[in-house]
Design brief:
The protein is mainly α. 79% of the residues lie in helices and 4% in strands. It starts with a strand and ends with a helix.
């Protein structure tokens, strides 16, 4: 059986079948990687949207306050940031002075 000068043998058929299987496996890996990337992107987008909503809520609350003390506001913001830093990085749990001291020792 010659087609265009090529004779199909059992070995050549098996070899082309192996190549096709490798291509299918590569495509499956690429699809799995794309699904994983999409899942991670969806998680990051959800976190970003929650942060944006928190910022909008904070802006609304600040706009409702007729008179506020900038020093008190700065202190509150620093406390909130410190609380979030404490949750994410336990190093800051002891306050800014001690955490800076511990950071220098490490």
């Amino acid at each position: 059986m010659e087609e265009g000068g090529f004779c199909w043998t059992a070995e050549s058929f098996e070899e082309s079948a192996k190549r096709a299987q490798e291509i299918v496996q590569r495509l499956r890996r690429m699809i799995d990687d794309a699904r994983e990337s999409a899942r991670k992107l969806e998680q990051r987008a959800a976190i970003f949207i929650r942060k944006i909503q928190s910022i909008r809520v904070a802006e609304f609350i600040l706009s409702c306050i007729p008179i506020f003390d900038p020093h008190a506001l700065t202190t509150r913001v620093r406390n909130i940031i410190g609380h979030h830093a404490c949750i994410r990085v336990p190093l800051f749990e002891y306050g800014p002075e001690l955490s800076e001291y511990r950071h220098r020792i490490r």
